[in-house]
Amino acid sequence: xxxxxxxxxxxxxxxxxxxxxxxxxxxxxxxxxxxxxxxxxxxxxxxxxxxxxxxxxxxxxxxxxxxxxxxxxxxxxxxxxxxxxxxxxxxxxxxxxxxxxxxxxxxxxxxxxxxxxxxxxxxxxxxxxxxxxxxxxxxxxxxxxxxxxxxxxxxxxxxxxxxxxxxxxxxxxxxxxxxxxxxxxxxxxxx
Length: 191
Ligand code: SF4
Ligand code: SF4
Known about the structure:
Elements: H1 5-8, H2 17-52, H3 58-79, H4 105-108, H5 121-126, E1 150-151, E2 156-157, H6 165-169, E3 179-181, E4 186-187
Antiparallel strand pairs: 1-2, 3-4
The protein binds iron/sulfur cluster (2 copies).
């Protein structure tokens, strides 16, 4: 088929589809900001009016506001609405853990690769480790909960040289989710 993306995505004046997309996103952000500002003005006006008319007590309002804020904060954390980014500047400087994985795969079934891994901006720049679109920027997983980069049946990592910082630094030695007895090679009961 030989489709040339560079020419088909560039207009007469050099405007690319990416430029248009960014302009659209920027205009949507501006619109959201204006809507947010207007809603804030309405809300503050309403609260001021209700306090002035004695319909609500400002101290009780502040207490109630703090309660709601706390419960919403927990909800946001649980549902992972927030964008997470691992702050590690350079994963290649990390000294990898020394667990003898090759002697243990048949027992642990690489259970560590079901744990949550957050990517860093270095990972995003590389574009090698895949992330979950619905939960940026955590490592993408398959339906069975295992990382998409885990190779079966070997239980080895397909992006081992470029694996994220969390994977490099992690050691399962004292992790009770993985081992009931690390030295005795007794895996923990799966929950
Ligand atoms: S659970 Fe431990 S031994 Fe098993 S693959 Fe992961 S790090 Fe290696
Ligand atoms: S990137 Fe590799 S080491 Fe890290 S969770 Fe995925 S398969 Fe496991």
